Amino acid sequence: MVPLLRKAFNENFSAAKYEAFLKDLHSLHPGDIEFRICETPVFVDKGFTQKVMEACEAIVDVICDPAFSALTEKSFPAGEKVPNEAKIAHMISFDFGVCINDNGDLEPQLIEMQGFPTMYGFQAYYPEVVERHFPIPSNYSHYFNGYNKQSYITMLRNLIVGNLPVENVILLEIKPEEQKTRIDFYCTKDYTGIEVVCLTKLIQEGKKLYYLKDERKIEIKRIYNRIIFDDLKANKATLGDVVDLTQDLEVEWMPHPNWFYRISKYTLPFINHPYVPQTFFLNEVKELPDGLENYVLKPLFSYAGQGVKIDITQEDIDAIDDPENFIIQRKVKYAEVIQTPDDPAKVELRMMYVWLDGDARPHLATNLARMSKGKMIGVRYNQDKVWVGGTVAYFEQ
Q1: Which own/partner pairs from 73-76 qualify as long-range (CB within 8 Å, at least 24 positions apart)?
Q2: Mind listing the pLDDT tens digit for each residue in 261-284?
């Protein structure tokens, strides 16, 4: 996206440099990076950075509006609202496609958002390795708002652990050792000291939760939640008798699970901005728009692109029994903007916000990026490609 930097990077790239980079990257937790790592970072100039920031802050305005809670009260699937909701979403991510408009200009277009943690730990480790192997201009950074690695990790630890003893805070996931994003769990443990605990290992006594460490039973006072409730529901039958997380438990959530639903695809129809594609709840569409091929059909309660229909037909619409659980979103045109040794690649940017207790608004801290050459962004859709996969964007300062 910055032609001179792209040209210089590509000319100096070699397979040997990439292999050395991967070897270094995998050395911290061997075997725990299961997704594909892209050959290159993304470089973003000031003009495009300003567009992305403008869009993010407009969405934040909606989230910070006092009416937001009432607006999203119907965002929860039946039986999945958790008591003792926090007043703020401590972690929020906005996914933007790098798109091309009708005038041929590059612009961001919001694809999804989530009030849920993403790779906040790994994105402190990964760029550090990138910078050991590839030249990054000094006026470009993957951090925002003055953060560097040290201050970012300090903030992350304070956000997750707070003033509690570290042993009373856990990262909670379903079978964490099997998750494709487990490298992030282990980086988070490295930086904060908290234990990574499986849902099946929780011990409940009354309203209190405990876990075992070195044969000691330790009370859990705060949960850094990495469980996606859709995933939990899909796997519940195979997990046995586990703690019901929708109970009124004596535990703090960070972030609270309810924000996963409040800030999600459900929120998209309420946002009016040039960089947010028009989105409608399917059950509220009185007359389907002409040219269904210009729209995408998405289930509200799914993640990682599952259930998304890119090329919609009338038969797809007719087959839906619960239209209240679907949105129809105007299709955007991803730009094949990154030149690679073979086909050019498309890019999605994930802008990663944090919301600290006492702050009026969340603020942007870091990012990740994903490159694709397939119809959909995401490593699972690019298995036979190169110069695709997970990476990071460096923004001109």
Answers
A1: 74/266, 75/261, 75/262, 75/264, 75/266, 75/267, 75/300, 76/258, 76/261
A2: 999 999 999 999 999 999 999 999
